Every structure is written in C-alpha cells, then in structure tokens.
Amino acid sequence: MRRKKITGIALPLLLVLLATLLLSAPAHSSDDHDRDTVSDIVVEFFYEIGCKDCKEARPVIEAVASKHNLPVVEYEVTDRSSIEKMEEYGLVVVPAVVISGQVVIHSDYEGNLSLLADLLDQSIGNAQTGQTNQTDQPNQTNPTDPTNRTDQANPTDQTNQTSAQELPIKLSLPTVFVAGLIAGFNPCLLAILAFIATVALSNEGGRRCSNRRMLWLVVVFCFGIFITYLIAGMGLLQAIGHSEGMRETIEDALIAIIVLLGVWHIYDAYHVKRYDTSSFKTSGSAMRYVEDLVKKESLPAIFVLGVLFSLVKAPCVGALYLSILKMLIKDGALCGALYLGVYNLGVITPVLLLGLAITFGMQPESVSRYKDAHRSSIRLATGVLLLAIAVLMEVGLV
C-alpha cells in the first residue's frame, strides 16, 4: 500500500521534470543560436589617417557596435593588407563600413551621423535575421552592387558609388597638371633657365656647350626640381597623416601662408612696375655661385642646382604647390604621390619645352625679354589666384 502511494507521487513528479526539460531545451538552443549569430557578425571599418569624414564617423560606428555587443575591425587603407581587403569587397572610397556583406559609405548618409547610425542598425538587424549573406561568404555578394546597399533610395544612381573622400571628385589629374603649368610659367623659373642657357651657350674661353649637352643640363635641372618638391610634398603629407590631431591646425597654417604669398605676389607686381626690379630678386653672390656650377657642366652639379633653386625660390614657385598640398591633406594622401607627381610634371613642362627650343636655336635673350615684359602681369595674376584659392579653401569649397 505504501509502495503504491510512493509510486503515485513519484510518477507525476517525474512527468513534470521531463516536461520541464523538454520545454527548456529548445529555448536554450535558441539562445545559443542567437549568441552564435551575433558572434559571427563583425563591423569592418575602412578609414584613412587624416580623413575628416572618417574621424567623424568613427565614434558613431563604435557606439552602434557597442550597443549590439559587436567587435569593430579597423583597416587603415594605406596598409597593403587593408588595400587587399578593400579590393576583395570592391571598395574604392573611405570611410566605408562592411557588415555581413552590406556596405555603408559616405554618400549613403552625406555627413548625417544620425542617418549613419540608423543605417548601421539596419545592417546589423539584417545580418542578425539572416536577410543578407554572412561575412564568411564574400564571394556570394558584391558589396558595391546597389541592390546590396542599405540605402535603397536611388539604387540606379551611380553617384551613390562615390564619396567626398574620393580624390578625383575634387581634384582631377588635368586640373592638377594645369596648376603645375601655371606655376611653371613663373618669372623666377624662366629667369634661372635663361641664365643657365646664356652661361652654357657662351663662347667664353673658346668653349661652347653642345646642343645635346645643353638639353641634358635642362633635363637634369628639371629633375632636381621635380624630386625636391615631390619628396617635400610626400614628407609633409605623411607627417600630417600620422598627426591626425594637428591636421586642422596645419591646414589653417597653410591657408595663412597661401594668403601671405598671394599678397606678396601682388606687392611684387607693384614693385616691378614701379622700380623695374623684383622683391624676389636673388643676391649677386648666389647668382655667381650658380654661374660657377653651370660652367662646370657637371650633371650632378646641375641636379644640386635644381634642388637649391626649389628650396631658395619656394615662395616664388611653390605658392600654388601649397594650394595643391592643402587639398590633398583635406582629402587624404591615398593618391598623394600620383597627384604631386602630375603637378610637378606640369611645373617642369614649360622649362623642358623652352630648354628644347633654346637647344635648337632659340636665343636665351628671347626668354629674358618675355620674362621682363610680362613678369608684373604674371605676378599680379598669380597673387589674385592664390587669394581666391585661399578663400575657397577657408569656406570649404575646395
């Protein structure tokens, strides 16, 4: 009798325990699945040091990822492995965020950080509910395909594929080359070329530089200028890129220098008009040193002359160069070497062409006469252009 009573109590308890285990098992499995799903989601952030848009987006990205307990993996785009990762996803601009194959770039939110947060939340929600492919399946989705983008407002608009961080939007190679040409047609540069040609082609001591040798002198002189400005520009961009906190201060300093150089050019136009001499004039001792270098007809000496000219005459020739540097700093340095190289090529092109003309018969005096006749106008035009560029930079239009 007692055994039946115990059995009657134990059986219901056993059934209740079994039911509890059965009911709790699916819930536990679901929790594990949810945790596994979240752990598989990674927020990948592509940025560039010195990029203003990237700096603004970072805290928003970190906040949204933290809210969803997701890790953020950052890729600095000048690193080789980061470039390979960008190519894998088909990305060409920064800032960019990839979440399980979904891409959010600057043109999706146009600087609206609240919209950026919403887009990131949406992408994470899609990833958690399985509406998009996971990050371990990159070959099954094209992140740059508008149909895979979180912003579906105008999927056929190709302008959504670009960003303010993509350099060709604000700086094109032809524009940079033309800026270099303008800087190349500079009285300082024309004067030193005419001086080199006059000394090299003189018959002093019964010795005259051959046409071929003259052409080599001009080419090496231009190469010295090209290398100096390229190294200086890239060095400045790299230094600023690794000092992100100082970027805005350096930008403001460059604008101030451009304004000062613009005013100086305008003053020099007046000085030339009134006194028939330039305030950029090189001292007699320096010109005698240049003459000694040219008379040696040594290619290394002429290269050094190009380097020294670039440094000494930086206020005269390098004003527009600072403007280009300012634009590259604002947009980042990803394509800096290419743009600086094209600009420097523009600077030396007039010198190369005039050197070629002198080599084949043009008199250096013709270059001097052109320089003397137009240097005031060139100075005035350059000064006005520099001031206009400085104003546009200050208001953020370039």
Describe the fold and architecture.
Helices cover 68% and strands 5% of the residues. Strand 1 (43-47), helix 2 (52-67) and strand 2 form a beta-alpha-beta unit. Helix 2 packs across helix 5, helix 7 (187-200) runs antiparallel to helix 15 (364-394) and helix 13 (319-331) packs parallel to helix 15 (364-394). Mean pLDDT is 73; it is low at 25-37 and 132-169. The protein has a four-stranded mixed sheet with strand order 2-1-3-4, with helices on both faces. The protein starts with a helix and ends with a helix. The chain contains 15 helices and four strands. The protein has helices at 2-40, 52-67, 80-89, 106-109, 113-128, 173-184, 187-200, 211-241, 247-275, 284-296, 299-312, 314-317, 319-331, 336-359, 364-394; strands spanning 43-47, 72-76, 96-99, 102-105. The protein has 398 residues and is mostly helical. It folds into two domains: 40-161, Glutaredoxin, CATH 3.40.30; 167-394, no CATH class.
Strand content: under 5%
For the residues shown, what is the average pLDDT? 73
Helix- and strand-based class? mainly alpha
Question: If you compute it from the alpha carbons, what radius of gyration comes out, rounded to the nearest whole angstrom?
Answer: 33 Å
Could you give the distance between the termini?
Answer: 98 Å
Biggest sheet record: 4 strands, mixed
Number of distinct helices: 15
Report the principal-axis shape: elongated
Task: State the domain count.
Answer: 2
Could you list the spans in which at least 5 consecutive residues all have pLDDT below 50?
Answer: 25-37, 132-169
State the helical fraction: 55-70%
Q: How many β-strand runs?
A: 4
How are strands sequenced across the largest beta sheet? 2-1-3-4
Report the order of strands and helices.
HEHEHEEHHHHHHHHHHHH
